[in-house]
Design brief:
Length: 87
């Protein structure tokens, strides 16, 4: 515990730019650790068969939404083709 307090006091005596550099390095290290844990948890979740089935079922509404956007875009680009469907 005394070592930690000693390091904190040592950092407090440093100029502002050194403290910022330490802050950026520590933040980057913790961010990297969190990303690695997140990636690891994704790997274990996606290898599960139940999860793969749920993902396949969840994608179906998204494909319908995609088709709706594509159809809307096509009606903007080719209004003549939409007029044919209206008849």
């Amino acid at each position: 515990m005394k070592k930690i307090i000693h390091h904190i006091r040592h950092v407090r005596r440093q100029p502002e730019h050194v403290k910022r550099h330490i802050l950026h390095v520590v933040t980057g290290v913790f961010g990297f650790i969190l990303v690695m844990l997140w990636i690891y948890s994704l790997g274990t979740n996606f290898t599960n068969n139940e999860t793969q089935d749920r993902v396949e079922n969840d994608v179906k509404p998204l494909s319908a939404l995609k088709a709706n956007f594509v159809g809307g875009y096509q009606s903007i680009v080719n209004p003549a083709s939409e007029a044919q469907y209206a008849e």
